[in-house]
Request: fold
Amino acid sequence: MGASTDDPWGRSFSFDDIATAVLDDRGIVLHWSRAAADLLERTAEEVCGSSVCDLLAAPSRGRCQGRPRRTGIPSTGRVALCSRSGHRFEVVFRTVPMEGSSECLVLALPAEQLDMWNQDTALVRALFAQNRIEVAIHGPDLSTERSNVASGVPGGSSGLLGGRLREVLSPQNADEVESALRRVLDTGVPLIGWEQRVRAPRVPDGQWFLSAFRLEDAQGRPTGVATMLTPTTARQRDHQHLDLLHEASERIGTSLDVLRTSQDLAEVLVPAFGDMAWVELADAMFQGDEPPKLAGAGLWYLRRAAIVSATGSVPSSLLQPGKPVPPLPDPPVLRKLRCGEIVLASVQEAREQLGPELAPLFVPEHGHSVLYAPLFARGLLLGAVVVWRTEYPDPFVEEDRKLLTEIASRAALGVDNARRYTREHRAAVALQQRLLPRATSDIPAVEAAGSYVPAGGGAGIGGDWFDVIPLPSLRVALVVGDVIGHGLHATATMGRLRTAVQTLADLELEPDELLTHVDGLVQQLAEEAGPAQRDAVGATCLYALYDPVTRQCAVASAGHPPPVLLRPDGTIRAIEIAPGPPLGVGGMPFEVTNLRLEPGSVLALYTDGLVTLDGQDIEDGVSRLEDGLAALCDGGGSPSLDGVGRSLLSRAAEAPSRDDVALLLARTRALPEDSTAVWQFPADPAIVTEAREAVTGQLASWGLDHLAFTTELVVSELVTNAIRYAGGPVALRLIRDNVLICEVSDPSNTQPRLCRARWTDEGGRGLYLVAQLTTRWGSRYGRRGKTIWTEQPLVPAAE
Reply:
């Protein structure tokens, strides 16, 4: 056999892969291993006793004679064999003479397998010989078994064999890296190009990419993890800067909240750019006002808006968010910031310029490099952003300063937009609050509590409103409405509609007639608006009129959700009404729904923002409102409506919706039956005396004799006018509550007028006399005829 000059046996192989045979000095096979039988597909019975040359492929038979040892077979070489199936392949072999015998042991391995092992070994040697890539092998417990980090000896011992990763990596990221490698070891999923700030022994500090994969034995069982650390290149750093700019442009400015925008800026910079960052803004910014213009040295009134640390916790020694920045000296850093310059400084410079008292508030522990960047927008210095590097080993360089310049300029616009929105939002909220009534009302007809939550998430203030309007004869109008759109124009429209509803309610119109008049007003407002805004003028409204004397409630809706009624017995339901079109559509009638309310019933009027939170279906929202109202009022007694309303609106306050939310809760009351007296009289002048006597007797039974004379005069004048100008029948009703109410009803629709009679006139002084004797008076129209009413205070008899 021909022998190879190279010795391929300086490697380690698995014995299971090596075919062995024992030959005598003539080349006769004496023993044949299992691996040899598998390789040549020939059993020991077939081979033993035959010459080894019979196993060679035909072209190799002539090479069977080579440089022999005692057996006549070469010590090493490469030869072609042929299996039983005719497959031809090469093997590398080696002969080992048996001590004290003429026999020899032959070991053979397929040449292809040996070549692959040689390539694998060359690759591993090359990796461990690198000085710009750290290669390490870690055992199942992640201890270091081999590393190329050594004293100039590739593949040698690093002095860390058997140590843990925290001895190879910096303690700041050892735990995180160990967790990642443990996942690789457990799952077998490799980790490729994980960007980390790694500090490794004898390897330059900086930004590195970590890759790891699991090592397995021949049976596929994990034996450890191999890791490689490769440093980032200049091109990779450029890509990182572009990625950071892209993230800053996408994230900063998406919120219209000053604090949220400041927090987003700090979070973008940490940990991608530095280990700690904070944003400080002028104190006026938090209220939406412009910061004062700084012409030179002086106090710079700042407040810390946000702070972020790569470790997740901010040391208590540093100035915390929301705290005002103490008066600072006038160091060069502040002077440069006021001029719009970004300042790069070391920790020594920062400490020297701040002084020993202020340095602990502004210099983090282990901080070694810092960048100060002003936030300029529209010529105003809004504040500053400060970025520190503590565990990140590399100091800031000129490229970092340029990058922060661009990020700060974009962030300043976002902060200023948030400030301007805060100012406009605050003005709109103030206007809205001024236009809304008092939150609580306590009148004879109802106890009421209203709540309002403005829209959040940048939607702006809208035109939701509620109202409680006391009316004559102890009646009350409950109103809730929602103007289309958001912003100041919606708030202004809401103010005009609320005023119109109040005015029309004071005319004591029926709910359907009142909504018809308001509908006409909205159409007029749409005509006054420009063509582009004409379709955006509209509103919905619900108007409920409750009379505590009759306990009747009349409800009409203009495209508004139905009210929810909670009865004293605990049953709750949404009132079935026939809603008309929204205000501004025109040409469609409104229908009135009448229902009788028991005393102690709770009526809930709301806008759709309450029942469409998170985009839910309005029916589901109404069901949730019913459940919440029933649960809050289930404790017995009469819970505070103000507290119930706040609880129902708590979800809207926690997660601001895109729409305003208004809620009005009203607990009804009823006048006792013995507090009213009603009479019917024919159209006969003689009954005026009967009317006076009936009133006098009723006042005496109520203990109001001191009002008898005045009330007699009022009743006499009103009944006389009704008989004279309207005919009969005439209805007279007295109502006693916190005032004494006298009502005279007749079938005429003629509006009485107050006039001043001349001294020669024989009549015309009746209404004037009534107006002088009462605190107020008026008239309202019904389905048939009209009612004239008066009010008198219930003053004590002694007065």
